[in-house]
Each structure stands twice: as structure tokens, then as C-alpha cells.
């Protein structure tokens, strides 16, 4: 969004009309409240950016269908300089040209102002026009969702009056009038310009109905401008106006719409010949994902130091309006309080407004009309003092962090110590810390500007946290979205009916509907389009219930950018849910769940033993977890925190999340039987998501990568990652991405896999983790790797003939008794000493190793795994050592 | 004002024609389009490209042509529609006066700028003043003053009760005497005469007392309000409020003495209650509080003496929240007549009269207003039903007939609302009309009483009633036909319905935390109570207890 510069933030409020009591929609579900409809429709206005329009920033819902809109605001408007006499013709032309520029841009986006009046034509410090409240007509569905008529009566165009006002509370109008067209704004502009020229208000102190009648009677007049001038006693002034201004007035105040020009036509009119040359057409800034060059229009001044000449210290004003508003909220801004302080929100005590009598269908009687529900569209300026005060200690350098060196950490500024202290605080607190968020937002903003070049740094910073304001784009960057996504999305046919439509239609009104955005009709439309686009563009895959939940976080974050939501979803699914959406996905899911239950056994043998005992297998509860990557079970705000980490992890990270969730419910699961467990999971209790993330990272670090090997996982990408590819980090790279060698894991039939309690790991992993290699121990940083111990269960003779260095020899029969209990002996004592380490069982045949592992799990040994292929795999490597006879 | 949208102005079919050159060939693309176009032009463009396999080098050209076409066509539509409207006006199909007055009315009704200025409302001013005072150090004084007024009223009431009982005693004795003589010297006629004489005497006495009470309460109310306003003015006038503070401080002592006189101890019944914290919602969970209480419904209304522990605090709590946005409500089950002559209605009226209501109209006056509202509602409904006669539902017929019989009566499922400042724990009382079906038969979730409950919860949402007390079994007292299975079944139904409504409420008000108290009659056994309290966590998901364990 454009920088705030000298603009202010303004807020105004209004009420959406209340719904008739107890009416259901055609689908049998309750109607969407009007305020939510408006909220959904508002979103697109945030993308309408033009120098002549006040930028819309945010909308929020209050109690009782109240809506508060935040937008760019200026305290001066053209109404102000009417008080001091007339305005010079040059100024009139300038104002009209700029208003028309704004109107034209709006029309291009399908918007009509309808409420054009001097109050809504604001002037910035340089005296340029900024249109305000231009989105009101659009967001209220042409006035259908609010009780009040939109527009000031004096400025309404005759055809607007003739088409009547729509009053939802009046049942006699069953039909909505057609919306007003762009030309009605031209009439309003005409009246406004007339006022500027004449230096007086039109039709002041007249009853509304008489005003409107007067406007309608103008149709019979030949020369409306003269009639108006006569009526207001300013014929002399009007006569003295230059010819082109009078011509402009005439054109605007043409009674018949068909003869009146549109804003676009008027802009090209010869009356503006003199001034149109001063204005250059507006260039839309190039978005992050497009086919055109983002730096194509970048022009550096000849002398670079010109850029630094700006000795103005107010760096905050160079930040985007949305950023400033976001920070304003974090610094304790409260919209309702601001409006209440200015007495715009006045509420009566509820006990005074109770109805007296209510019928069975919910209609209430005896309740006076509450005056506090009336429209007062005064815009209140939100003071930025508190925010500036809060940020006064942030050094100027912090606004322009250097990204040159990949090694440098957070920006070095005075407050960096404080910041590094903040990093250690819980995420929830960091997300509410004004200074911290400012620094993070600036950093991410700059990293995104450098995307994809700065991808590596992005990954690094994302491990700290992702600021909520830029999460949508940050995720896209983490998912590696590139290219002209909009063109790709546009070329997908999202309209032609397909058989999946019905299922999508059923699922959408049940998906994260507690959220205002996703429950709005606009949200539903976007949901439908993105889902359809995905289904249509992936002919080998099908729509499975759950895809809607998966789509929800992307749509929520990129509500105004369906193409990006689609692109993110399309990139996410192959990475984490490869082939989950096949028509017959049972083999994929079965393998996934089996690996998951091995993971449970690996990390929490006690829980695994209990769950297996009562027969509570992952198939009963975990399918929706993994199929939707937990989006079905958590509310959006938790999904965001979970996925911030998930996106950094490899495709096996979800296993760890699953285990972490189970561990949070551990006590209750252990205490309960099958039925209670089923009940518990049918409505998952609250999960502490930050703890869950922390624990799953820990679990992930303890899991050897090949342990989560899946035959049906996404095969290795061909060609690698390209020039901007991230350096392979141990945790984020997938096992599948590694080149396949003889030492890698072999695919295993599902039934064999199911039979094994503990996961297998590859010889490769063992070599890596035990740091065996022919070149001797490498000097790699050891900290990130799990501690490991290799247990060789072959008999002593075989062990003596060659074994993995550092491994201990515990022959199979030596430690377990007849019933599988651990026998007290030196070998088992040694085993006990290694409790907590990753124990790799090595033997001749995998079968005996699996049996040994199963026994260990039974007696609650954690982190037990088996070497895939047994000792024979290692033989060709020449890594086996033979102990010298004396030892 | 009624306009029928002409066929032509709805959706119209237009043909979009686009010519382009491919090598030497000139191709023409013709697309029938429906206007106004609902979908995105970019999508349409993408579809056309795909469908007609249009070469990509004319992609931009096609897009430009398409959007120009759309703009032009929609411009034409707007113009035609607008001029149609102007024409209708010119030829008189639409009346100018009617049109403009409709506009004027909608402006006047909805926007502050054009609305008639508000006449100052004394009630609301008083509300503001009181709300301010009760949240100041003066609150103690206010409460003590209220209490002293309460004491004087209850003294009056006890005096009345004594006098009435004396009269009744005397009359009973007299009647005994007369009955004794019946058949000898006196005839039936004489007995009747005596009886009617007694009745009249009683009536006279009762009326006298009623008048006196009314007068006293009126005086009290006036005095109280004057005092409150004056106190507020004094507080505002003096910046140096030390003097006022003294004034405030002096009074309690004086009043406390007055309060000591005439103690009528309330017997405290052992109250059974159990509280639950629940989570509602599938993904996003909202927290609410539930409470199961075994008590008499009027226990929530009865005003206790300061002597009973906690009563004053409770009283303060109620006073503090009176004009706030967390009100307390109570559901009272009543019959179909709006009065306070019999049953629970009379008991409630007695309780409501025990203390002067310093803020709202007396219950009688409120009921009169309700009666007016009921009549108005019936009239509205009748006129509405007459207009679209075909809309009438089959089921609605006999109900509307029943209402026609006596329009001042209310129907099951309907409720009226009274407001009180003088009850101990309740600000708002929902008088829900129920019929005898509830006592005997088994009911479904579609029962009017349940629907009424839903509407009550809805009003709670819209008017910030955050605590509401609901009779769980939908009866105030137990009778023989209410067996254990009956109770369990009824409780399950109400629990489940309320759960559903509470989940629905989350979408109305954004999931504000509320408290719902389920009330069971006092006569219910302890065992039954615990059975019910076991049932509750099975229906609502009780939030998990936070177990603190040391790290192993």
C-alpha cells in the first residue's frame, strides 16, 4: 500500500440493517448478517489504490451490526473554501479534473461513488483532491444492506431520485432498484462545482422533499445552470465565469443521463485542454508476481546522494498506510473508544431499550426506535501521537535494514539488544509488541521486495517468526511461488459446471464459518472459484472433503488475491500431501498412517502401547488431521502459527505435529478406554499450539530423516531447485530430495510395514548420524543431530568378524526373557544406560531386528529404530571395523 | 412506488462481435453474452481464449475489445433504465409527491443529520446520573438510602398484614357465630349478606393499604430521584469534593441505625448448586459458564436484609450493572393473561412490591404497557395477514383464531418483558407464556415454549443480558406426574436445545461469554439433582481442567 505521508487515518461508523427475524436462506441455513456481507464486499476496496482516492485500510464489526471503516483521511475538504467567497476558475477546473480522474479510475473498477458531496472531496496538503467514502455504495450492495439512503439529497442526480429509494424495512418494495451508473456522479460533481463557482450552498434550508422536487423539475428547463443561478441569486457571478467553466457546468448538469457525459468522456473534453497536460496517467505499481519487470520503471537520480537529502526524520510516514494502522492497533489503538470519545458512538443502556412484548416468531414490539442507531457519518481522525511516541526510540537505521550480508543478523541499532531479548518471548507477546513488529514488518517487506533473490534470508528469518501483516506473501515466498500467477489463474475455466460443484457447494458453508471473512458471500464466491480452479487444473487428482479446509488459510491470507491463494495451494499440496487427493488414495493414506503409528512408537512407546492395546489406531482419528494438514481441527489463528513452522519443515514434519498433539492429550488418553478416546477426538479439546509447535520441532530433531521414508511420497524433484535454491538445511530438506543410492531405504510392502512397530532407518542415515565415513569424522556441527547408539544383536562371533564402530553388542537372546521382559544382566544394564538415545538395531535379518525392537518398545524404550537391510548393507561400504584381538 | 422491472431491463442477451486477422484470414468471433455480466471479465476472457482456441497474439486485443464492449453496453443499460425512471415520473405513473416524501422519510428516519432533534429523555438522563454515582464513593450511601426505603415499605407491609389478619380473625369469629345461628334465627340470605359485607370490608381495607403503599412508594421514588440528581449536581459543582464526601459519609451512620429496626429474618434454604465451564464450537471455541441451581425462582428476586451475609454485596452488584451492558435476566413461566392476579404471577408481584422501584415504572404500569403492546401487535398481525391472504400457513390458522377470540391474551411461546431495579439479582424478567401441555405431555424441540426460549436468548444477545436463569424442567413446581424419567427426558431436551441456541448465539454476537443458570424446583430430591448434574457434562463439552504436573 502507498506510504501514509501527510495523510491521517480516519474512521467512520454505520450500522448494517438488521435482518428480519428468523428467515432462512434458500439452502436452509441461517441468513448471513448484513454486516458480514458488507465486510466481505469491503475487502476488494483495499486494493483500489489511486492518488485521487482515499485509501481504504480496514473494516471491523462491532456489536449489533455496527461497522467501523478505517481509511486515509484529510481534515480539509472543498466545502471549506466555499465559506470565503467564490473560487477561482482555475481552481474549479483543477478540482473537477482531479475528481474526474478519481471517478474514472473507480468506474474502471466497477465502482460508483453515489455519495459525492463537498464533505467527501478532501484536499491534501498540496491542495490535491482525494475522494472519500467512494466505496460506501459498493460495500453496501448499492445501499441494500443499510437502512439509510446513500448520498446527500442536494447532490442526488435526477434519475437517482426518480428510481426511488430502497427502504428494506418497508415491505411494499419487493424489488431492489437498479444501481446507479457512473453518470449520476457527474451530476453531483456539477452541483458541487456550481457551489464552488457561486460561493454558496445549493438548496440550503429547504425541506428534503422540496429539494428533490426542485431537482426533478429541472428537467423542464432549457438552461439548468441559469435556472440554478437565478434561484440562488448569483446570476451575475455565473455570467462572469470563463466560457470553459460554464461549458463544464452545462455538461455536468445535463438532465438526461443519455446526453450527460461519463467521467471518462469528460476527462477527454476540450474544456480541460489547458490543464490535462499537467497530469500524467496513473501507473499501477507492478505486483510481486507478474511477468513484467518490477524494476523496469526504477530510475535512480544521477547523483545518488539526492536520495539521502531527505533530512526529514519522520521515517514512519514512509511506511504504508496499512502498516501504520496495524502498528496503531498494536500500540493500543481502539476504534470504538476513539469514536465514543468523539461522541459518534453513543449507546443507551440496554436495559432502557428492551422490547415489551415478543411474538413466537421473534418479532418484538414496544421498543422505541433507538436514536443511537442513526447514521452519523462524521469521520474521526485517529491520532497517531501514541504510536509515534511509542516508536520515538526506534533509530532511523531500523527503517532501512541492510540485507547485503547473509551472515548479519537483525539490524544493528540501539534497540537491537532489546530486540534480541524480545525474540525469546512467547510468540503471542511478540506479535503484540509494537517496536518488534515494526522491525519485523520492515525486514520482511524488504526481503519480499528482494524476492526471489533474497529467498535464503527469508527462510532464515521465517524461522524466527513471521509478522502477521505480511504472512500471506511470506508464505508464498516460502512455498516458492514464482511467475505470472494471475495469468495462469485467469486462464483456468472456473465457470463451466463440473460434477464436483455440488460437493463444493455443500462444504463451503461448513468450513471455518466462525470467521467473518470466510463466512461472507464474497468469501464463498472466492472459495468456490479457487477450489474449482484447483480441481479443474489437476485432472489426475479429485476433490476430497477436506480440500476446502486446506484452502481456507490461503484464501483468508490472500483474500484479495485469488490467484495467489490458488498458487499457494497448488504448491502446498504436492509438497505435504502428495497424491492424497488421488481418486484411490488408500495406499497413500495407509502408508502415511502406518508411518505415523511407527512415529508414535518411536517417540512415546508407553502411549503407543496403550493405544494399540485398546485398538485406538490412527485410522480412527488422524485421517482428517493429515488430509487437511490440521486445518480441519484448529481455528485459523492456530493454523497460522502451526503452519508458520510447518512450511519450514519437510514433508515428514506433520508426523511430529501429530505426535505432539497426542502428547498434549497424553494423560487423558492413557487414563481412558476406547470409547472415551473416540469421544475425546470427536471434538478435539483446546490444544496449546505454541507448545505443540515447540514440541514437534523437538521431536523432529530427534527423528532420523529416513525413519519417515514413504514409498508413495513425492519423488525427487528433477533438476533441483535452480539458482535461487536454498542451501540444503538438515531440517528443511526432504529425505526424498536426496539422491538415491545403494544405501538408501528400499520400498516396503504395506503389510510388512504395518507389521513393524518401529521405523527403519537407512544405512546412509546411520553413517551420517554415527559420523562414520572413510575420511574419518567430519568437522560438521554436531549440535543439531540426535544422539545415537547402534545396538548389534548378532551373536558375539559375528560381531567380532566386523561391526559398526561404536556399536554395542547385545545378542538377541541375552536380554529378553520368555515373556519379553527385560532380564537383569550387564547387557540390559548397558541398554538402560542408553535410554533416551536413538537406538538403532542392527542384525543379519531385519525380521529379528524388528522383533527385538518390538520387545524394546513393549518395555517402553523410546526412539528405537531398525537398520534397513541389516548389516549386509554396510558390508560393501568398508566401514565395518574388526576389533583388535586384545580388546 | 411499486415498479415492476420490465423484462428488458433485467438480463438481456447481447452479442459480442470481435474480428481479428490470422495471417490472411479474417476471423470473426461471436459470443452471446448476458448482461449485466455477473462474472469477472478476466475470467470470461480466459474462458473465451480456451474455448475457441484463440491464438495468444491477439490476447490483449481481445481483452481490450471485451472490456470496451462491456463498458459501452452497461453504460447503455444504465442510461435506459435511468431514463425509464424519469419517464415514469414525467407521464405520471409514479407520483412525484409520494416519491419525494418517501425519500424524505427515509432520510429523516435513518440519519442523524436529517432526523428530528431528540426530545430530552428524563429516564436516560437519570440513568446516566445514577450510573455515574453508583460507580463513585457515593454508592454506599445510595444503597443505604435504598435500603432504608425498603425497610419502611416492609414495615408498612407487615403492618398491613397484621391488620388484615386481625380483620380476618374478627370476621371468621363473626362468621362462626352466624353459621351457628344458621337455621335458627338467621337464613341463608343473612349469611350471604354477612359474607358479602365481610368481603367488602376486606376489599376496603386492602384498597386503603394498596393506596397507601402506592402513595408511599411514589413519594419515596420522587424523593430518591431528587436526592440523586441533587447529589450529582453538588458533586459536579464542587471541585473540592471533600465537603460532599463528608456529606456522603455522614449519612450511612444515620441510615444504618434506621436499618436496624424491625428485622424480619429470612430463612436461608440450603441451596444446591453446581457450576461448569464449557466450550462451544467445532474449531473456534467460545467459553461459557453454566450453573445448575436448586432454588425457588423467586429467590433471585427477593430482597434480603443487610443482615444476611452477602446480600448487600449482591445488591451492589445488581445496582452497578443496572445500566451497564451485562444485565441479568430471569425466565418466569406464566399463563396466557397479562396480569398479576394468580399463581406465580401474584407471588412475583408481591415480591416486586416489597421494595420501591426507583428507576422504572411499577409492575402494574409496566403490565399495562405490555397489554397495549400486545393489542397493537395483534392489530398489526391482522392487517398483515389480510393483505397476503395466500401466505397464511396452514398451521397458523387455528392459532390466529385463538388469538382472535381474545386479542389481549398471549399465546404459548410469546413473552413479555419487565424491567426492575428493585430485585435482588435480576434486572430483566422474561414472562414466557406456557400452556398445560408442558406439565403433562412430552414435548419436542419444536414446542412453542422452546421456541420462546430461543427468542429470549436472542433478546439476551441483542440487549446484553449476559446472565440468564432458565427453569430447566420448564415448570416452577413439581407435581406427581413428573416422574424421574420425565424429569430426565425434559432436562435432556432443554439442555440440548439451549446448547443449540447458544451455538447459534455465537454467530449473532460474536461469541461473547455468557452465564446460563438452569433452575430446578426446590422440591426436587438431592439424588435427582445430582443425576441432572451428571447429565450436563455429557451434553456440553466441559473445558478440560488444567492439571499442573511437575516436569519429569
UniProtKB/TrEMBL annotation, chain A:
Keyword flag Transcription regulation: no
Residue ranges of every copy of the Rhodanese domain listed in the record: 784-883
GO molecular function: ATP binding; protein kinase activity
Subcellular location: Cytoplasm, Cytoskeleton, Spindle; Early endosome; Midbody
Function: Component of the FERRY complex (Five-subunit Endosomal Rab5 and RNA/ribosome intermediary). The FERRY complex directly interacts with mRNAs and RAB5A, and functions as a RAB5A effector involved in the localization and the distribution of specific mRNAs most likely by mediating their endosomal transport. The complex recruits mRNAs and ribosomes to early endosomes through direct mRNA-interaction. Also involved in the modulation of mTOR signaling and expression of mTOR complex components. Involved in the control of actin-cytoskeleton organization.
Primary site of residence: cytoplasm
Protein name: TBC domain-containing protein kinase-like protein
Domain Protein kinase: 1-272
Gene Ontology BP annotations: heart development
Endoplasmic reticulum as UniProt keyword: no
InterPro entries: Kinase-like_dom_sf (IPR011009), Prot_kinase_dom (IPR000719), Rab-GAP-TBC_dom (IPR000195), Rab-GAP_TBC_sf (IPR035969), Rhodanese-like_dom (IPR001763), Rhodanese-like_dom_sf (IPR036873)
Pfam families in alphabetical order: Pkinase (PF00069), RabGAP-TBC (PF00566), Rhodanese (PF00581)
GO cellular component: early endosome; midbody; nucleus; spindle
PANTHER family, alphabetized: SERINE/THREONINE-PROTEIN KINASE PLK, TBC1 DOMAIN CONTAINING KINASE
Domain of life from the UniProt record: Eukaryota
Annotated keywords: Cytoplasm, Cytoskeleton, Endosome
PROSITE patterns according to UniProt: PROTEIN_KINASE_DOM, RHODANESE_3, TBC_RABGAP
Family, as annotated: Belongs to the protein kinase superfamily.
Coiled-coil residue windows: none
Rab-GAP TBC domain mapped to chain residues: 465-650
Originating organism: Xiphophorus maculatus
From TrEMBL, chain B:
Pfam families found in the cross-reference section: Fy-3 (PF10154)
GO biological process, one term: regulation of mast cell degranulation
Organism: Xiphophorus maculatus (Southern platyfish)
UniProt protein name: FERRY endosomal RAB5 effector complex subunit 3
Bias (Polar residues): 385-394
One Gene Ontology cellular component: cytoplasm
Region called Disordered, residue ranges: 385-407
Regions of compositional bias (Basic and acidic residues) in chain numbering: 395-404
Amino acid at each position: 500500500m502507498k506510504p501514509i505521508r501527510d495523510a491521517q487515518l480516519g474512521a467512520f461508523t454505520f450500522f448494517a440493517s438488521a435482518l428480519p427475524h428468523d428467515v432462512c436462506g434458500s439452502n436452509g441455513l441461517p441468513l448471513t448478517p448484513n454486516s458480514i456481507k458488507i465486510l466481505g464486499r469491503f475487502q476488494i476496496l483495499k486494493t483500489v489504490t489511486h492518488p485521487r482516492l482515499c485509501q481504504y485500510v480496514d473494516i471491523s464489526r462491532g456489536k449489533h451490526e455496527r461497522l467501523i471503516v478505517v481509511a486515509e483521511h484529510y481534515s480539509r475538504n472543498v466545502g471549506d473554501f466555499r465559506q470565503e467567497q467564490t473560487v477561482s476558475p482555475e481552481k474549479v477546473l483543477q478540482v473537477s479534473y482531479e475528481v474526474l480522474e478519481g471517478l474514472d479510475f473507480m468506474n474502471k473498477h466497477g465502482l460508483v461513488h453515489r455519495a459525492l458531496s463537498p464533505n467527501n472531496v478532501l484536499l491534501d496538503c498540496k491542495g490535491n483532491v482525494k475522494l472519500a467514502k467512494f466505496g460506501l455504495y459498493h460495500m453496501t450492495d448499492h445501499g441494500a444492506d443499510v437502512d439509510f439512503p446513500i448520498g446527500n439529497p442536494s447532490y442526488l442526480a435526477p434519475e437517482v431520485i426518480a428510481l426511488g429509494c430502497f427502504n428494506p424495512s418497508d415491505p411494499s418494495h419487493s424489488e431492489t432498484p437498479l444501481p446507479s451508473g457512473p453518470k449520476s456522479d457527474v451530476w453531483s460533481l456539477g452541483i458541487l462545482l456550481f457551489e464552488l463557482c457561486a460561493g454558496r450552498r445549493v438548496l440550503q434550508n429547504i425541506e428534503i422533499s422540496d429539494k428533490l422536487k426542485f431537482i426533478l423539475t429541472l428537467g423542464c428547463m432549457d438552461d439548468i445552470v441559469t435556472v440554478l443561478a437565478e434561484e440562488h441569486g448569483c446570476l451575475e457571478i455565473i455570467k462572469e465565469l470563463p466560457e470553459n467553466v460554464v461549458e463544464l457546468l452545462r455538461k455536468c448538469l445535463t438532465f438526461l443521463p443519455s446526453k450527460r457525459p461519463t467521467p471518462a468522456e469528460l476527462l477527454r473534453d476540450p474544456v480541460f485542454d489547458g490543464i490535462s497536460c499537467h497530469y500524467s496517467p496513473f501507473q499501477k505499481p507492478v505486483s510481486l508476481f507478474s511477468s513484467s519487470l518490477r524494476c523496469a520503471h526504477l530510475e535512480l537520480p544521477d547523483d545518488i546522494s539526492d536520495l539521502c537529502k531527505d533530512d526529514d526524520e519522520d521515517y514512519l510516514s514512509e511506511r504504508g498506510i496499512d502498516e501504520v494502522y496495524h502498528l496503531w492497533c498494536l500500540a493500543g489503538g481502539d476504534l470504538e473508544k476513539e469514536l465514543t470519545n468523539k461522541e459518534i458512538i453513543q449507546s443507551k443502556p440496554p436495559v432502557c431499550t428492551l422490547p415489551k412484548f415478543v411474538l413466537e416468531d421473534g418479532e418484538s414490539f414496544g421498543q422505541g426506535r433507538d436514536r443511537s442507531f442513526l447514521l452519523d457519518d462524521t469521520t474521526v481522525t485517529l491520532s497517531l501521537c501514541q504510536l509515534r511516541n511509542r516508536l520515538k526510540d526506534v533509530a532511523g537505521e531500523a527503517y532501512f535494514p541492510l540485507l547485503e550480508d547473509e551472515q548479519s543478523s537483525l539490524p544493528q541499532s540501539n534497540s537491537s539488544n532489546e530486540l534480541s531479548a524480545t525474540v525469546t518471548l512467547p510468540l503471542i507477546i511478540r506479535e503484540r509488541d509494537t517496536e518488534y513488529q515494526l522491525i519485523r514488518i520492515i525486514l520482511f517487506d524488504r526481503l519480499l521486495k528482494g524476492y526471489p533473490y533474497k529467498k535464503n534470508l527469508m527462510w532464515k528469518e521465517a524461522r524466527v517468526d513471521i509478522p502477521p501483516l505480511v504472512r500471506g506473501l511470506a508464505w508464498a515466498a516460502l512455498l516458492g511461488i514464482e511467475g505470472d500467477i494471475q495469468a495462469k489463474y485467469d486462464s483456468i475455466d472456473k465457470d463451466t459446471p463440473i460434477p464436483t460443484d455440488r460437493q463444493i457447494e455443500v462444504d463451503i458453508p461448513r468450513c471455518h464459518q466462525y470467521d467473518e471473512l470466510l463466512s461472507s458471500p464474497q468469501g464463498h464466491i472466492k472459495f468456490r472459484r479457487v477450489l474449482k480452479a484447483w480441481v479443474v487444473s489437476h485432472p489426475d487428482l479429485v476433490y476430497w472433503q477436506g480440500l476446502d479446509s486446506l484452502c481456507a488459510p490461503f484464501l483468508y491470507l490472500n483474500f484479495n488475491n485469488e490467484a495467489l491463494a490458488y498458487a499457494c495451494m497448488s504448491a502446498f499440496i504436492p509438497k505435504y500431501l502428495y497424491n492424497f487427493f488421488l481418486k484411490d488414495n488408500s495406499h497413500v493414506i495407509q502408508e502415511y498412517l502406518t508411518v505415523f503409528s511407527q512415529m508414535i512408537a518411536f517417540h512415546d512407546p508407553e502411549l503407543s502401547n496403550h493405544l494399540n492395546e485398546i485398538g485406538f489406531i490412527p485410522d480412527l482419528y488422524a485421517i482428517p488431521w493429515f488430509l487437511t494438514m490440521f486445518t480441519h481441527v484448529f481455528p485459523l489463528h492456530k493454523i497460522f502459527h502451526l503452519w508458520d513452522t510447518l512450511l519450514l519443515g519437510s514433508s515428514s514434519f506433520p508426523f511430529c505435529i501429530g505426535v505432539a498433539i497426542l502428547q498434549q492429550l497424553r494423560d487423558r488418553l492413557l487414563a481412558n478406554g476406547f470409547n472415551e478416546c473416540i469421544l475425546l477426538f470427536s471434538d478435539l479439546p483446546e490444544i496449546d499450539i505454541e507448545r505443540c509447535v515447540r514440541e514437534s520441532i523437538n521431536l523432529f530433531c530427534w527423528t532420523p530423516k529416513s525413519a519417515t521414508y514413504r514409498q508413495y511420497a513425492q519423488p525427487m524433484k528433477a533438476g533441483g531447485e535452480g539458482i535461487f535454491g536454498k542451501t540444503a538445511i538438515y531440517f528443511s530438506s526432504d529425505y526424498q530430495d536426496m539422491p538415491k543410492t545403494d544405501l538408501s531405504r528400499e520400498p516396503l510392502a504395506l503389510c510388512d510395514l504395518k507389521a513393524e512397530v518401529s521405523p527403519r532407518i537407512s544405512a546412509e542415515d546411520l553413517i551420517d548420524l554415527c559420523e562414520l565415513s572413510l575420511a574419518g569424522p567430519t568437522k560438521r556441527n554436531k549440535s543439531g543431530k540426535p544422539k545415537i547408539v547402534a545396538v548389534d544383536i548378532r551373536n558375539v562371533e559375528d560381531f567380532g568378524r566386523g561391526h559398526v564402530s561404536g556399536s554395542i553388542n547385545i545378542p538377541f537372546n541375552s536380554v529378553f526373557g520368555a515373556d519379553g521382559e527385560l532380564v537383569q544382566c550387564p547387557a540390559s544394564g548397558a541398554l538402560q544406560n542408553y535410554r533416551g538415545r536413538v537406538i538403532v538395531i542392527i542384525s543379519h535379518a531385519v525380521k529379528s531386528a524388528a522383533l527385538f525392537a518390538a520387545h524394546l518398545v513393549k518395555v517402553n524404550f523410546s526412539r528405537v529404530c531398525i537398520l534397513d537391510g541389516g548389516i549386509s548393507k554396510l558390508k560393501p561400504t568398508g566401514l565395518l571395523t574388526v576389533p583388535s584381538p586384545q580388546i | 412506488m411499486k415498479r415492476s422491472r420490465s423484462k428488458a431491463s433485467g438480463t438481456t442477451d447481447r452479442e459480442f462481435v470481435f474480428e481479428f486477422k490470422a495471417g490472411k484470414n479474417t476471423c470473426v468471433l461471436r459470443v452471446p453474452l448476458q448482461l449485466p455480466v455477473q462474472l469477472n471479465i478476466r475470467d470470461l476472457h480466459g474462458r473465451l481464449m480456451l474455448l475457441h482456441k484463440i491464438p495468444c497474439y491477439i490476447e490483449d486485443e481481445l481483452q481490450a475489445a471485451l472490456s470496451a464492449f462491456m463498458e459501452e453496453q452497461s453504460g447503455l443499460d444504465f442510461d435506459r433504465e435511468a431514463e425509464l425512471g424519469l419517464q415514469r415520473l414525467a407521464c405520471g405513473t409514479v407520483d412525484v409527491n409520494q416519491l419525494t416524501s418517501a425519500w424524505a422519510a427515509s432520510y429523516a428516519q435513518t440519519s442523524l443529520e436529517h432526523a428530528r432533534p431528540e426530545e430530552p429523555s428524563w429516564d436516560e438522563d437519570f440513568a446516566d446520573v445514577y450510573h455515574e454515582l453508583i460507580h463513585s464513593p457515593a454508592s454506599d450511601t445510595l444503597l443505604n438510602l435504598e435500603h432504608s426505603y425498603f425497610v419502611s415499605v416492609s414495615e408498612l407491609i407487615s403492618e398491613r398484614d397484621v391488620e388484615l389478619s386481625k380483620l380476618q380473625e374478627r370476621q371468621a369469629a363473626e362468621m362462626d357465630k352466624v353459621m351457628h345461628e344458621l337455621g335458627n334465627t338467621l337464613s341463608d340470605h343473612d349469611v350471604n349478606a354477612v359474607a358479602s359485607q365481610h368481603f367488602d370490608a376486606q376489599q376496603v381495607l386492602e384498597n386503603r393499604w394498596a393506596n397507601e403503599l402506592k402513595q408511599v412508594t411514589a413519594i419515596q421514588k420522587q424523593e430518591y430521584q431528587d436526592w440523586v440528581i441533587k447529589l450529582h449536581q453538588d458533586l459536579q459543582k464542587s471541585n473540592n469534593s471533600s465537603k460532599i464526601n463528608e456529606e456522603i459519609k455522614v449519612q450511612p451512620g444515620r441510615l444504618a441505625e434506621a436499618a436496624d429496626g424491625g428485622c424480619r429474618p429470612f430463612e436461608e434454604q440450603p441451596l444446591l448448586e453446581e457450576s461448569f465451564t464449557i466450550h462451544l464450537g467445532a474449531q473456534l471455541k467460545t467459553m461459557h459458564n453454566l450453573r445448575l441451581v436448586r432454588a425457588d425462582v423467586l429467590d433471585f428476586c427477593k430482597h434480603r436484609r443487610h443482615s444476611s451475609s452477602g446480600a448487600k454485596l449482591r445488591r451492589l452488584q445488581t445496582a452497578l450493572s443496572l445500566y451497564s451492558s451485562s444485565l441479568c435476566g430471569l425466565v418466569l413461566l406464566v399463563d396466557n393473561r397479562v396480569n398479576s392476579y394468580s399463581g406465580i404471577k401474584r407471588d412475583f408481584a408481591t415480591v416486586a412490591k416489597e421494595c420501591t422501584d426507583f428507576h422504572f415504572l411499577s409492575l402494574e404500569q409496566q403490565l399495562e404497557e405490555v397489554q397495549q403492546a400486545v393489542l397493537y401487535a395483534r392489530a398489526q398481525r391482522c392487517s398483515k395477514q389480510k393483505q397476503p391472504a395466500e401466505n397464511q400457513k396452514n398451521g397458523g390458522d387455528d392459532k390466529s383464531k385463538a388469538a382472535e377470540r381474545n386479542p389481549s391474551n398471549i399465546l404459548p411461546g410469546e413473552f413479555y418483558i419487565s424491567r426492575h431495579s428493585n430485585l435482588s439479582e435480576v434486572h430483566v424478567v422474561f414472562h414466557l407464556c406456557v400452556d398445560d401441555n408442558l406439565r403433562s405431555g412430552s414435548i419436542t424441540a419444536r414446542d412453542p415454549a422452546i421456541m420462546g426460549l430461543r427468542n429470549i436468548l436472542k433478546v439476551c444477545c441483542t440487549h446484553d443480558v449476559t446472565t440468564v436463569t432458565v427453569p430447566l424442567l420448564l415448570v416452577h413446581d413439581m407435581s406427581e406426574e413428573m416422574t424421574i424419567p420425565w424429569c430426565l427426558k425434559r432436562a435432556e431436551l432443554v439442555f440440548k436445545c439451549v446448547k443449540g441456541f447458544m451455538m447459534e448465539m455465537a454467530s449473532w454476537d460474536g461469541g461473547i461469554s455468557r452465564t446460563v443458570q438452569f433452575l430446578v424446583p426446590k422440591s426436587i430430591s438431592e439424588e435427582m439433582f445430582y443425576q441432572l448434574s451428571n447429565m450436563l457434562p455429557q451434553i456440553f463439552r466441559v473445558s478440560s481442567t488444567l492439571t499442573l504436573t511437575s516436569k519429569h
